[in-house]
Amino acid sequence: MVKSDQTTLAVVCLLLPGIPDPQEAHMYAQAIRTQRDDDASARQCIEAAIARRKDEFALSQVAWTADYGYILKFHLGAVEVVRTAVEMLVFEESWRMDIMLHGVRLTFNALAPSSEAFGRRVRAAHPSG
Predict the structure, then answer these.
(1) At what angle do helices 94-111 and 116-125 cross, to 10 degrees?
(2) CA distance 31 to 2
(3) For a tag on the chain, would you pick the N or C end, based on fewer CB atoms within 10 A?
(4) Are residues 107 and 44 in the same domain?
(5) Residue 101 in contact with residue 49, Cβ under 8 Å?
């Protein structure tokens, strides 16, 4: 933990005196923050996992909100997929990252013009007469 995080924990412990455990204070500190200072490292982590998995889509945006956690936007051509409420555990455990990225891949596959799901949607929207 860096010096600023220790200061944050100390402030949180003072503001919330019912929290004796520093780990619990750390969780509250994460919720209180409105801006992450490690968005660049989150982006690097995701891009490295995409490259490792040889996925075709790319990460286009990383944003942190105090209400929802990370909001991630991926793109493949003109199609964009957004994942909201991404927890920090996704960045700490590779199997969680793989599950999230697998879901993104499945979403892109379902939205791809060559997919059967896309064909069904087009046929349903434009029935031949």
Answers:
(1) 40
(2) 18
(3) C
(4) yes
(5) yes
